[in-house]
Each structure stands twice: as C-alpha cells, then as structure tokens.
C-alpha cells in the first residue's frame, strides 16, 4: 500500500495477507453466527451491504496483547450495546493470522457515532482495553460519500 505523507514523501507499507480463514462477519446481513466480533471461524465471509450515502464509518485497527481475560465477554456486550444505537447500520471484522484486527462500524450519521462513542459502558471498555487488551490501536472516522457493492448471483 502506498501512502503519501503530509510533506509529500511517498511511503510504501506492507499490506498484511488475509487468508481465506480470516474471520469476518456482518451484523444485520444474513444469518447470525454470534456477531461481528465473536470467534466463530465457521462464519462465511460476507461484507455488510453497500449503504446509501452519506454515512459514517469508524475503522478500528488493533493489535491485542497477551492479556485477554474478560475480553470475549466485554466484546459480546459491546456488540449488544452498539446494535441498540439508533443509526447503527452494521459492522465488518477481519483478523489476520499475524494478529492484526480490523473492525469497521457503519453509522447513519454523526449523531449515531457520537452516541456510541459517549456510551458509558463503551467508555469503560475502552479504558480497560488500553490498560489490558491492546498493544496498540488506531481509530479512523470518515464520512462516506460514495458506496457500491457486488455479490455474485
């Protein structure tokens, strides 16, 4: 992947290979396999639908630490909570064999995203994540202006 820095320098970054066994699920799209961020590797790879723009995405990229006590339970609870946010559209998640996790949350508008960001339980989970579960993470929020999809018949 090529990236241009603010100074105009072009930098190449390796793109991690995501195997066919990559875990990827969507909420509200097809059968439920335990949710977007659960550990059910039998779930088929299927992205969420292409929503009608404009909408917002939150891209959360993580590297988890060795300490994972309580992570699965908290993760399941966060999934329950975000589903109840008015304007939450869905979620995609992928995990590389090397441990890089990418979760993309889709929200109808900035208000929905703000409601999720300010949820008290979500805030507590974020704090615990920084203290225990993540070696590093990045969060990117963007407004989607164009969206389309393809699905083989």
From TrEMBL:
Record domain ABM: where: 55-128
InterPro entries named among the record's database cross-references: ABM_dom (IPR007138), Dimeric_a/b-barrel (IPR011008), Jasmonate_Hydroxylase-like (IPR052936)
One Pfam family matching this protein: ABM
Name of the protein in question: ABM domain-containing protein
Organism whose genome encodes this protein: Streptomyces ruber
């Amino acid at each position: 992947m090529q990236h241009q820095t603010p100074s105009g320098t072009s930098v190449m970054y390796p793109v991690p290979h995501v195997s066919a066994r990559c875990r990827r699920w969507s909420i509200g799209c097809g059968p439920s396999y335990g949710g977007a961020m659960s550990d059910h590797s039998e779930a088929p790879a299927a992205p969420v639908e292409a929503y009608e723009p404009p909408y917002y995405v939150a891209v959360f990229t993580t590297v988890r630490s060795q300490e994972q006590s309580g992570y699965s339970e908290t993760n399941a609870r966060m999934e329950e909570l975000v589903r109840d946010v008015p304007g939450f559209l869905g979620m995609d998640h992928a995990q590389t064999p090397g441990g890089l996790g990418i979760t993309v949350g889709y929200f109808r508008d900035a208000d929905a995203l703000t409601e999720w960001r300010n949820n008290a339980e979500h805030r507590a989970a974020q704090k615990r994540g920084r203290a225990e579960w993540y070696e590093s993470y990045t969060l990117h929020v963007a407004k989607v202006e164009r969206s389309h999809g393809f699905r083989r018949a």
